[in-house]
Amino acid sequence: MPILSIYTDKHIGADMLTLGHITLKKGDFTLKDISFHLKAGEYLNLVGPTGSGKTMLLEMIMGINTPAHGTLMINGKEMNREALQKRPVGIVYQNLYLFPHKNVFENIAFSLHIMRLSKKEREKKVEDAARFLKIDSLLERSIQHLSGGEKQRVALARALVLGRPLLLLDEPLSALDAITKWEIMQEIQRIRHEKGLTVLHVTHDIEEALFLSDKIGVMMNGELRQIGPVEEVVNRPASVEIGKLIRKENLFRMIYKKSRSLLCKGDFCLYKEGLEAKKEYLVHIPPEDIILSLKPMQETSARNCLKGDVRSVIHHNMGVKVHVDAGISLVSLLTQRSFRQMALEPGQTVYLIFKSNAVGVYGL
User: Fold this and answer.
1) 249 or 72: which carries more pLDDT confidence?
2) What's the fold here for domain 9-245?
């Protein structure tokens, strides 16, 4: 059966979600002047430390909380005071909130109670959603007898069965083991593209955000500190704090030795000119700026050439991340093509080459 997208070509580029100067106070915590827009079909991950306001913002979009100031628009319509059940959104929570006393069919069908459907129409919608999520053989099974991945698929089916164009995900993958998490992330990508969904996803996991997102938004202390395309936020963080949050790879505290133009962490040193002697810096080397070679490069203007051993390889939508032990743990980002050509495997010796201007520094 062909899968029909919720959004056709004429909708692409239209704003699906717009927040204009949203302020919301709950207890002692305040969301402060939040503004952004999300076009139909885009995927935004909101990242930030615990207590930064990510889930509170998601609940406001759902309709659980009403903003004190500002405007919320969904699919071109103001939603500030629209009832929760009338908002065109589906939601998957961190805890899933599946009913243990109901079977899979009943859990998926639960969200249809707000629609005036015949029994036959309701059954068809549930069966279509279950087939799309590849759980149609489980419809009569008790929730208590499902694996973690199967429960995730049931929760996704329940969110999708209403056919709403905006999907909200509140850390739904946090409790999964690594293999199941990877499978569900791939499934979310498939769902998003085949259904033409717009997705707003809250997570603590930067790797999760890099794999799934078109955009990343960074929240801290109730403020949206930065939002933009993944590459922009990762490569040009707006502050040291964002750099620390986003750039968990190739991020080090180092002391500058001016006499030799070296940034050092113990015995590990990088070449970098023009810094203040004996001062401590937060240093970042973008993974995409580190070239890997199977042998030393004789003709290169790069001042940094390190030898190391491959420790692990991780594939995601930006390429292939190769983790190398070079006296300190470094990550290089390769294209899929480069990775295939090099045929890298754990334990293999490689050389890491990068220019001094690839070494970003923040004064501490």
Assistant:
1) 72
2) Rossmann fold (3.40.50)
